[in-house]
Amino acid sequence: MANYTNNQNILKWVDEMVALCKPENVVWITGDDAQMDALKAEAVSTGEMEMLNQEKLPGCYLHRTKKTDVARVEGRTYICTRKEEDAGPINHWMDPQKAYKEVGALFDGVMKGRTMYVIPYSMGPIGSPLAKVGIELTDSIYVVMNMDIMTRMGQKVLDNFGDESNDFVRGLHSKADIDNEKLYICHFPEDNTIWSINSAYGGNVLLGKKCFALRIASYQGKNEGWMAEHMLILGLQNPQGEITYISAAFPSACGKTNLAMLIPPKEYLEKGYKVFCVGDDIAWLRQGEDGRLWAINPENGFFGVAPGTNEKSNPNALASTRKNTIFTNVCHNLDDNTVWWEKLDKNPPVNAIDWTGEKWDGSTATTNGAHPNSRFTAPAINCPCISSEFDSKAGVPISAIVFGGRRAKTAPLVYQSFSWNHGVFVGSIMASETTAAATGAVGVVRRDPMAMRPFCGYHMGDYFQHWINMGAKLGDKAPKIFNVNWFRTDDEGNFIWPGFGDNMRVLEWIVDRCKGTADAVETAIGYELKPEDINLDGSGIDMDTLKGLLTVDKDLWKEEAEGIAEFYTQFGDRLPKELNSELDALKARLG
Ligand code: OXD
Ligand code: MN
Prior knowledge:
- This protein has 591 residues and is α+β, with helices and mostly antiparallel strands.
- 29% of the residues lie in helices and 22% in strands.
- The model has no long low-confidence stretch (mean pLDDT 96).
C-alpha cells in the first residue's frame, strides 16, 4: 500500500474497520483528477450514475436511489451516549455497547466482494482553526463523488493533519442491502464515531454533513466552547461597501438555500446593495480574538432541494447546478439528456424517466417527475454570489442571528429579541410545519428548537444551557437575535409576504437594528419594526397588508405559551432556569 499517512491513529482504525467489513479492496481517495475520473467512469459503467448532456451540463451526473431510500430517517437515527439521559428526550438513544455489537454484526463482512473507499476530508477550509477532520469509509462511489463536492477532501487533508493528532471523526458507511429494516445511523459522540448502514441517501450517508458537522460537532462545540448550528451565513453589502454578516436557522426545506443566495429587488440593486452567500445549511461559530462571534461554513458545496428551484426563486442556485453537479432523484429528460423537476419551468418533458425509473410524460402525468426531496449536489464555487470570504480561515464576524419557521398565523414577519437570553428563548420555541426532507407526515406543526431538533447530538436542555453560556461569554459583543416568518397566510391559505428577493427588505431592517440606526416598537413578544421603517417600494405590498403581517394576536400567543410550557416539561431540571424566567416574562407581558 502506498503511504498516504503515517498517522497511526488513522491507520490502526482503518485496519480495524477493514477487518470488520472485509472488503475485497481498499482504495484511499487522494482526490486527484485521474482517480476521480476513473471512479466516475466506473459508476457510469455499473449504472450507478448516468452521465448527462456534457454540452449543456458539463461534468454533471444523475443518480436514482431506491424508492424506499429518499430522505433522512429520523426514527433510525441514534445518539449512542453511555448514559441515556445525556442523549435527552428528543433523540433516539441506543446503548453504545449494544450498538457496536448489533450494528457491528451487520457490518461484519458487509463489504465482501466490494471496495472500501477511504475518504479523508476537512469540514472547513483546510488548516483553519475552526475546521475539523473526518475520515469516511464507504462502499459507495456515489458517496465519494458527493463528498468530493461537499467537502475539501483527499491527500491534502492527510498532509495537513500530520502524524500525531487523534482529533478526527471516524465515519463508517455501507449501503449493505439498502434494507430499511436494518437501517441504522448511529452517532457515538463520546468516541467521535459515526456508523451508518443500509441507506444510500445523501443525508444518511454523506457523514460530513448532518452526522458530523451538526450532531457530533454540536457535542464537540459544547465541550470546547463553540457552536455548530443548522444555519446559513450571508453577507449583506450596502452601497457604501460595508458588509454585515447574518446567520439564520430554519427547519429543513424552509428556504435556507434561497435566502442564502438572495438577489435583492431591482430598487436595491440599483442603489448598489449586494448579498453574498457564505453557506446555505451549516455554520460553525466561535468567539474570535476581538470578542465577537465568527463563523465558517464547514461545507464546500450545496446539497439543495431541487423542486421549486427556478430562475425566479433562486437563479444563483440554478446557476450553481449547471456544471460538475450530481442530481439525485430528479426527472431525466431523454430528449436532450438533461434534468427537470417540479416548478423548474412550465415545460415538463414529455419523453422522460421519472425519479422512480419509470417512463414519464409531463403533458399527461399525474405523478411527480422528480421526488419532492430530490437534490442537487453542487460545488460552492459555482455560485455566482459566493462570498470572497468563503475560503477564509478566520471566517466572518456575525452581527445578527435570525431564527424562522413556517407559521401560518402566530409569528409576525419579523421581531427582535429583548436580549441574548430572550433570543435563546425565541430560538428554543421555534416551530414549523414538517416538510418532505425527512420521512413522516408532511404539514404537521412540530417544535424545532433552533432548527436543531433532528441534529443536536446531546441533551437539548444542555444545548439551551450552552447557548446561554455562549451569550455570557460574548457579552455586549454578542450578535443581536431576530425571528422571521415568511410564511404567514391569508384566510384562503395563500402566502401574504412575497418572500424570496423581497426578504431583503426585512434583512435591511435587521442590519439597521444591529447598527442602531432603526427604531422599533416594543410588543409582548419582542421589538417589532415600525411599518414606516421598512422599504416597500416595488414590493406590491401596501401598508395595511404590512401591518397585518406584523400583528401579534395575544390569544394565539397565550395558547402558544401553554404549548411552550408543555414542550419544556420534557427537559426537566436540565432546562435552564433562564428559559423558564423568559416564559414567565412572556406570560406576564401577554397579561
Ligand atoms: C438538509 C436537511 O438536507 O436539513 O439540509 O434535511
Ligand atoms: Mn439542512
